[in-house]
Design brief:
Length: 314
């Protein structure tokens, strides 16, 4: 008895930088951090918020002059991080804590380097550990540390650059994707220049890429079907918007292509003609890369498919 090949796995990383203006209030807060000062805002009810609010939660007015708070404070609540993730403030175990800075009535979130969870407690007095090189960002505070810890010698007092009032937040998601057995067969087929779908034994519909089960009947689809690399455009959109990392220059067409013999369309590019010429019913054929994947679909020049031939598959 032969075993099916193991499903394919690959690491996937989704990453982008989110850049935005800090606005007038948080710009002051961040700029002050470069100067080793922490600012809060006094609200209409007399309470001091640190970090400062942009709009007063009571009156909805922007704050007046900001007030200095801290730099020491008290842990209000905390949670231990035994195995820090990439991009977090500290490489070793630390606590995420809500810290109420002296002179403030609200708490701010930051990391506390206490050495061990047993050293953490509500009411712990902490002080900021300033970054040697400061740029006007929340990272100018490396972390907080117990106020009774030996103080590290001050190395550098200078802000390393003028804050520009912008914040760049890297957003990253790293995960391992495991393809289903059907998808794995589909991907292995692509590498050989073949398009492999699966047919449902109950309704007879052919799905590509295969999902492993029929969405209509809920039964496994293990009847493998090889499909031709020609098909029909069932619907499409013209992409006019550019974005970083885009591999095709707009305008271009992303289309739903119904392969001959398939019952569901799949998404692909339609290139090789003016975007304005692409239409529902247009006949197209795959253009393959040398590496064994489909670069895009291109018009074949055949007469258009009639609407009735693909109306059920839109
Ligand atoms: Zn079915």
């Amino acid at each position: 008895m032969s075993h099916p090949p193991a499903p394919l796995r690959a690491p996937l990383e989704i990453e982008f930088d989110y850049t935005r203006s800090l606005g007038p209030v948080l710009s002051q807060f961040m700029t002050a951090l470069a100067d080793r000062r922490i600012l809060g805002a006094r609200g209409a009810d007399g309470r001091v918020h640190a970090p400062p609010f942009e709009y007063d939660p009571v009156s909805a007015d922007p704050p007046g002059e900001l007030v200095a708070v801290g730099p020491e404070g008290t842990v209000v609540s905390w949670s231990w991080m035994p195995e820090p993730l990439e991009g977090q403030p500290l490489a070793g175990p630390f606590a995420w804590a809500l810290i109420r800075l002296d002179g403030a009535d609200t708490a701010m979130l930051h990391a506390v380097d206490a050495g061990s969870a047993s050293a953490m407690r509500i009411g712990l007095r902490v002080r900021p550990r300033w970054a040697a090189s400061r740029t006007g960002s929340i990272h100018d505070i490396t972390c907080f540390e117990p106020a009774d810890a030996p103080a590290a010698p001050d190395t550098q007092e200078q802000a390393s650059r003028e804050p520009d009032g912008m914040i760049i937040t890297p957003v990253r998601l790293h995960y391992e994707h495991t393809a289903s057995p059907g998808e794995s067969a589909y991907l292995r087929g692509l590498a050989e220049g073949r398009l492999l779908g699966q047919r449902c034994g109950v309704c007879g519909h052919v799905y590509i890429p295969p999902r492993g089960t029929c969405p209509a009947d809920g039964v496994p689809t293990d009847d493998e079907v090889e499909l031709p690399d020609s098909g029909t455009v069932t619907s499409f959109c013209i992409v006019n918007v550019g974005y970083p990392g885009q591999r095709v220059t707009p305008p271009y067409v992303a289309a739903a292509v119904l392969l001959d013999g398939a019952d569901i369309a799949f998404q692909h590019l339609v290139l090789g003609c003016d975007p304005g010429e692409v239409r529902m019913g247009m006949r197209v054929k795959a253009v393959w890369n040398d590496s064994g994947s489909i670069s895009h679909f291109a018009p074949t020049g055949e007469p258009d498919a009639t609407y009735e031939t693909y109306a059920r598959h839109l």
